[in-house]
Amino acid sequence: MSDGHEKREFERYENLPVEEPIMARFQIRSDTQETGSDDWDSANLLNISVGGTFFCSKKDLGIGTLLDLKIDLPKSTSTINCVGEVIRIEQFEPTSVFTNAIKFIDIGEQEKEMINATVENFLEYNITHF
């Protein structure tokens, strides 16, 4: 039975505003892959927290797959470079769209602070404007 409290470890922001989307580029991490590879896919993030993110893709990335991620936060000139692990996938039938839940497994403290500040700004904006 739920006590009504958030069970997530980190506060997150869902349903990110269309006028300020958070874009990410991702590629499957490979030890044999060149570091400077240009083979990146793009996605609009559906939610984000210090612990991870959630987005749709046209590929089944596979549970346990490691991804190199480049996340561009609104109103920031910095790009967050981190590594995430696919922890959950769902396919929307009959389309070929997959939702991917990603857990950050290698992310710096400064990058965590940038994400946290972005989440807090989105939450504060919603409280004061709606």
UniProtKB/TrEMBL annotation:
Pfam families assigned to the protein according to its UniProt record, in alphabetical order: PilZ (PF07238)
Gene3D superfamilies attached to this UniProt entry: predicted glycosyltransferase like domains
InterPro entries the UniProt entry points to: PilZ_domain
Organism placement in taxonomy: unclassified sequences, metagenomes, ecological metagenomes
The protein's name in its UniProt record: PilZ domain-containing protein
PilZ domain: residues covered: 6-117
A GO MF label: cyclic-di-GMP binding
Signal sequence, start to end: none
